[in-house]
Write a sequence for this structure.
């Protein structure tokens, strides 16, 4: 008996822009731990080498969220 090949089809009702936005957010969330570890390692390395590290009062904060949205080329 011959086996049949499985054929999968995915329907994505979202626009390409929405899909790219979702994937970007997903990848950022998935790699957040790696980024935090890399930042901590860089901070400890700078502290060991005696380089300047900003104090919490020296850092500017952004009050409103930043929208990272990919725009289509025109």
């Amino acid at each position: 008996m011959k086996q049949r090949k499985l054929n999968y089809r995915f329907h994505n009702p979202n626009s390409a822009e929405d899909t790219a936005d979702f994937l970007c957010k997903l990848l950022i969330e998935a790699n957040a731990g790696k980024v935090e570890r890399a930042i901590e390692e860089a901070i400890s390395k700078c502290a060991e080498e005696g380089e300047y590290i900003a104090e919490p009062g020296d850092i500017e904060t952004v009050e409103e969220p930043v929208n990272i949205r990919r725009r289509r080329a025109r």
User: Anything to note?
Assistant: The chain has a mean pLDDT of 79.
